[in-house]
Amino acid sequence: MKRRDLFKTALGLTAGFSVLRPLYAADEWEFRGPDVPNVPITKITDRTYYFLAVDPEPSPSNFGFFSNPAFVVTSDGVVVIDTGGSVQIGEMLIRQIKTVTDKPVVAIFNTHIHGDHWLGNHAFVEAYPDVKIYAHPKVMEHVKNGAGIVWTGFMSRNTNNASAGTVITPPTLEVGHGETIKVGDIEFKVHYMGQVHSDSDIAIEAVEEKVMFLGDMAMRRVANMADGHFKNSIVAMENFESMTHVKYFVPGHGEFDDVSMIREQKQFFEIIYNTIEEQYDNGLSDFEIRPMIVETEFMQTVAKNWPGFDTTIGRFVSEAYQEFEASLF
């Protein structure tokens, strides 16, 4: 399946759901998908960890595991940042977390509405009924409007129903920009910067660990900006770059790194948006501007190596062009 077709299925095209359509009760599925093989844990600091997804897209071979869940071990229990895209992925995360600590999972943050980051909530609620699940209020709003059904359908279709059995289990506790939640000996600070990758993005800072969990606001990957905003993304990267106290940034896809990841993401968006802004008055279309963007040194030496570049950069240019044009009215 072409990448643009893959993501169209997750952006509201609900027609043609398979017989195994996602439902709210697990026993209404015709069968349950298989267990997900254990994914290795990557240590960031003494108390922060994440699960690196090596594949950029969901498939039957990876069971839908294509985003990076993470967790922090506090004195009072484990805090999880994103839970994966199915109950099976969530169960795998729980198994693996138990190899690090016997403390219970006491809190979860879902970084945004895209289902590969929160459908695994189902497993955690079953294992830890009292777990607190936090997200931006727009996540709950989107789920009420059907986003959970769209995303369970997306995961099911693109994994040959490996996610079957997943119950839509949205977060229930709202958080906003600047809020802090203390769990044991670690403070978690919420950063909301408006519409970036989606309109519900939050980054979670483990303050004492100097680690920022970004969700999908920054990543060395050319993926999905249909719900995002290019100019706001540039501002968000400037904000992250100014947080000199943060040592590590953990993306929702790809490997964690220092502030260099933020700077590369900012440059990527700046080249796209600024080139469109410069060439729009010359009467050039997005199709004509695209080669100018692709042929820049940064795109050829850095971004071209990111997953999805060759298949998705054209759509990025088109979406940024439409955003710029809309800003004129």
What tags apply to this protein structure?
329 residues, alpha/beta, 5-stranded mixed beta sheet, 10 helices, disordered N terminus
Which structural class do the helices and strands define?
Answer: alpha/beta
Radius of gyration, rounded? 19 Å
Please state the overall shape, judged from the principal axes of the Cα atoms: globular
What's the count of strands?
12
Tell me the series of helices and strands, N- to C-terminal: HEEEEHEHEHHEEEEEHEHHHH
Describe this structure in words.
The chain has 329 residues and is of the alpha/beta class. The chain contains ten helices and twelve strands. A seven-stranded mixed β-sheet has the order 1-2-3-4-5-6-7. The protein has a five-stranded mixed β-sheet with strand order 8-9-10-11-12, with no helix packed on it. A hairpin with a 4-residue loop joins strand 1 and strand 2. Helix 7 crosses helix 10 and helix 8 crosses helix 10. It is globular. The protein starts with a helix and ends with a helix.
Topology:
Layout: H1 3-8, E1 42-43, E2 48-50, E3 70-74, E4 77-81, H2 87-97, E5 105-109, H3 121-127, E6 132-135, H4 137-144, H5 147-158, E7 173-174, E8 180-183, E9 186-191, E10 203-206, E11 211-215, H6 230-241, E12 248-251, H7 260-280, H8 286-294, H9 297-301, H10 309-327
Parallel strand pairs: 4-5, 5-6, 6-7, 11-12
Antiparallel strand pairs: 1-2, 2-3, 3-4, 8-9, 9-10, 10-11
Helix pairs in contact: 2-3, 6-7, 7-8, 7-10, 8-10
What is shown here, in short?
With 329 residues, the chain is of the alpha/beta class.
